[in-house]
Amino acid sequence: MNIYVGNLAYSITDAELKSAFEPYGQVISAEVIVDKRTRRSRGYGFVRMANEAQGRAAIQALDGREFQGRPLRVDESKPGSQEKRSPASRGGRSSRGHGRHQRPATSASAAPAAPARGVLSFFKKIFSRG
User: Fold this and answer.
1) Which residues of the chain have pLDDT under 50?
2) Are 56 and 3 within 8 A, CB to CB?
3) What per-residue confidence (pLDDT) applies to 114?
4) pTM for this prediction
């Protein structure tokens, strides 16, 4: 059973998260999610328990319980809540340009395209005056 654990202290490690769940059954894995850029905990993680009964016991015992000074939010993980979501669905930018800041498509009969406003066009404009 996969379990979501929220409101974690930012200093918690995978081993500490695992040790919090071990009294309730066999823990297959415990992972604190970290920001890839800053390498700092994002304040939540996932625990995988050996079976559903052990997972439910852990959820019931730990939800709302204070751990390292913070009340935990423990719940069953929804399918696809972590790995299966694309960067675009999380509000980030994907490598394919499908992010939320993409310009809408225009037809060929639309008005002519506006001049480019990048750094290159800025320099062309400055140096073309003579």
Assistant:
1) 81, 83-90, 93-95, 97
2) no
3) 57
4) 0.60
CATH of the domain at 42: 3.30.70.330
Per-residue model confidence (pLDDT) at position 126: 75
Is residue 119 included in any domain, yes or no? no
Residue 7 placed within a domain: yes
Count of the separate structural domains present in the chain = 1
* pLDDT of amino acid 110: 53
For residue 41, tell me if it sits in a domain. Answer: yes
Give the domain range for residue 65.
Answer: 2-76
The predicted pLDDT at position 89 comes to 45
DSSP letter at 44? E
Burial environment of residue 121 by CB neighbours within 10 A (0 to 12, 13 to 18, 19 or more): exposed
Nearest to 61 by CA among 109, 3, 106: 3
Assess if residue 120 is contained within a domain.
Answer: no
Q: What is the DSSP secondary-structure string of 8-43? A: --TT--HHHHHHHHGGGS-EEEEEEEE-TTT--EEE
